[in-house]
Amino acid sequence: MSDPLLKHFYGGFIRLHVLYHAEKEPIFGLEMIEELGRHGYRIGPGTLYPILHQLERDGYLKRTDKVVAGHRRKTYRATAAGRRLLKDAKAKLRELFTEVIEDRPPQR
Ligand SMILES: [Zn+2]
Predict the structure, then answer these.
(1) What's the DSSP call for residue 60?
(2) pLDDT(108) > 70
(3) Distance 19 CA to ligand 1 centre (A)
């Protein structure tokens, strides 16, 4: 992932992906890195953690610290603002998919 434009696109996809999972259940960093890896994104903590912190700072994720097997684990869930943002982004994604992937004009 060295092309700057591709990196820019992926940054958005990764944020959308994080919000999607954080809406369904609490997520934590390592788990998301593995999940994104399954989707073909090879990213490390140095990329993912700043994204989680940014989304938390901007009010889209809420962090809860849990102790799991003696270790403190930071888990994140989507806030109401995060869920709203995801809903809006999904509408845009659907429209983009219709045009770019299905090659059809978007429904209005
Ligand atoms: Zn996923």
Answers:
(1) S
(2) no
(3) 10
| Residue 65, strand partner residues | 74
Q: How far does residue 41's CA lie from ligand 1's centre (Å)?
A: 11
Q: Ligand 1 mean position to 38 CA, how many Å?
A: 8
Domains recognised in the chain with CATH numbers: 4-101 (1.10.10.10)
Report which DSSP code applies to 107.
Answer: P
Beta strands in the chain (DSSP E): 27-28, 61-68, 71-78
Residue 36's pLDDT is 95
Cα of 107 to ligand 1 centre, how many Å?
A: 27
Of 86, 67, 97, the residue nearest 20 (C-alpha): 86
